# Entry
Amino acid sequence: QVQLVESGGGLVQAGGSLRLSCVASLSIRSPNAVGWYRQAPGKQRELAATITRTGSTNYADSVKGRFTISRDNAKNTVYLQMNGLKPEDTAVYYCNADVLTTGGSYLRLWGQGTLVTVSS
# Structure
């Protein structure tokens, strides 16, 4: 089954850290970037960070300097290290990536999301 599975969310106090993981069933080495998005209660989903196949990264201004996106292509995994968490980082975090199918094409998928709650 072609899928993305996120993990690593939880409850943390302000100033704390969490590391999210996004594991794909098969390769995510398409030319398109992999992204971490987040959706806070009552708000639209927004981009937090992206990383290309070669490791180039891009961050939303709201997370720049606190979050780090990385990837391990051999493990079909993308990470989001979140430091200095703030209550406004509370959201469901989603991974978005092209995942290789058994047919040899890539399918753009969303994971099921992982909830991050930051208490003040």
About this structure: The radius of gyration is 14 Å.
